[in-house]
Specification:
heterodimer; A: mainly beta; 11 strands; globular; B: about 110 residues; mainly beta; 7-stranded mixed β-sheet; 4-stranded antiparallel β-sheet
Chain lengths: ~110, ~110
């Protein structure tokens, strides 16, 4: 089955700096890659996603890049703010109505004021 | 529009007991999935239902079962609870296969 790995496990950046979180996946048939943000005690929230027919997607300060050949994708957050502090999960799934999300273990991002 | 709603929010059960968790998807969403999130880990897939039929099952024992009702709400049942079943149980729904999943706030289950 699919295996998704995230690295690093923790990341600390200064407010205003950029943060990059990387994920790798194992199943070349996966073609949908969402990123979820989970604040302490709250539900995971979808912040951005990308499908395998595009290499990059941006939404304001957030962008995701996908390298299908290397089977990895990355989340880029620019101009980080303290409210970006949370656990970020990447996931992968295949197309279709029967798809399931396989999540990584999560990365704790801390933005220092 | 209401999001995905789950009940109860918190639950404490004793080993060996049974529990039923409930989920109401976003209106119009026909696909519902259940995930288990152990502290410090990513969510792990348990079940997926679409149009009241089971479409996928994760690597969980037969003590775990679920169903989806005609109004697309869903229940997750866990029998013979073990201490290791203590976790946050998340329900997620989506409109179509091309859209992302929206998660509910979860049910925090503690088994003592």
């Amino acid at each position: 089955g699919e295996n998704v790995e995230q690295h690093p496990s923790t990341l600390s950046v200064q407010e205003g700096d950029s943060a990059v979180i990387k994920c790798t996946y194992s199943d070349s048939a996966s073609n949908y890659f969402p990123w979820y943000k989970q604040e302490l005690g709250k539900r995971p929230q979808l912040i951005i996603d990308i499908r395998s027919n595009v290499g990059e997607k941006k939404d304001q300060r957030i962008a995701v890049t996908l390298n299908k050949t290397a089977k990895h994708f990355s989340l880029h957050i620019t101009e980080t703010q303290p409210e970006d502090s949370a656990v970020y999960f990447c996931a992968a799934s295949k197309a279709g109505a029967n798809s399931k999300l396989t999540f990584g273990k999560g990365i704790t991002l801390s933005v220092r004021p | 529009d209401a999001g995905v709603t789950q009940s109860p929010t918190h639950l404490i059960k004793t080993r060996g007991q049974q529990v039923t968790l409930r989920c109401s998807p976003i209106s119009g969403h026909k696909s519902v999935s259940w995930y288990q999130q152990v502290l410090g880990q990513g969510p792990q897939f348990i079940f997926q239902y679409y149009e009241k039929e089971e479409r996928g099952r994760g690597n969980f024992p037969d003590r775990f079962s679920a169903r989806q009702f005609p109004n697309y709400s869903s229940e997750l049942n866990v029998n013979a609870l073990l201490l290791g079943d203590s976790a946050l149980y998340l329900c997620a729904s989506r409109l179509t296969a091309s859209r992302g999943y929206t998660f509910g706030s979860g049910t925090r289950l503690t088994v003592v």
